[in-house]
Amino acid sequence: MFPSRVIFLCLCLIIAAATQTGFHAFAQQSPTVKECLQRPSLCEQPTNSPKSEAVPAEQAQPSPFSAWDVVRLIGATLLVISLIYGLLKFLYRRSQLLPGKKGVIEHLGGTSVGANRSVQLIKVGNRILVIGVGESIQLLCEIADESEMKEILALHNERLEQMLEPSKWGARLRNYLADKQKQPSQPHAAFRTMFLREIQELSVKRNELLKQMKQKGTASDE
Fold first, then answer.
1. What is the H or E stretch that residue 113 is in?
2. Are residues 35 and 93 located together in one domain of the fold?
3. How many CA atoms lie within 13 A of 121 on its CB side?
4. pLDDT tens for each residue of 183-194
5. Does the global pTM surpass 0.85?
6. What residues make up the domain containing 112?
7. What are phi and psi of 112, to 5 degrees?
8. Distances (CA, A) of 58 to 22, 51, 61, 152
9. Of 66, 80, 68, 86, the residue nearest 17 (C-alpha)
């Protein structure tokens, strides 16, 4: 519940940062009614300048947004995303620091075995329980083997790490794309090698023919 509130608050900050620039630029673009009453010169329309009438509308009204505003908005968005990621990482590490605290219940996983029936794996303190959920909840067994408990907890922690570290998925995607790029290059390299070998063979045959022609020419002269 707490992380969802934090994420909602961060999204509100993103929206506020996005709209702040637009409101500020709009406020600077045209004076308010109070400013017009206090300083009428701000609201006077120039009528004596013929050149101002020939100016296009695009030049007379510059865009309220600039490249620097876009850069600031992107930077603020990236900062908020990094803060959300760091907060989730911190909450996960904090929950991992107190694994043996009494009264702490952690859901390790489960699977469905029928209509409205499932088998769930729950960690209660230092105990791992297997329960059946259906019309009623029943304790099926308790895992007492320490090696099996360590293996289950290791698999659970690895799954959580994969969910909180999208960089691993990015690395897998980059490796997959790199492998895809290497696959078509192998036939191309084989074709190039065969082509160069054929060129070398033709060059050797050409040199042999030239030598034979020279030998025939010298023999006829004699």
1. strand 105-114
2. yes
3. 12
4. 555 556 677 778
5. no
6. 105-164
7. -85, 140
8. 18, 15, 6, 66
9. 80
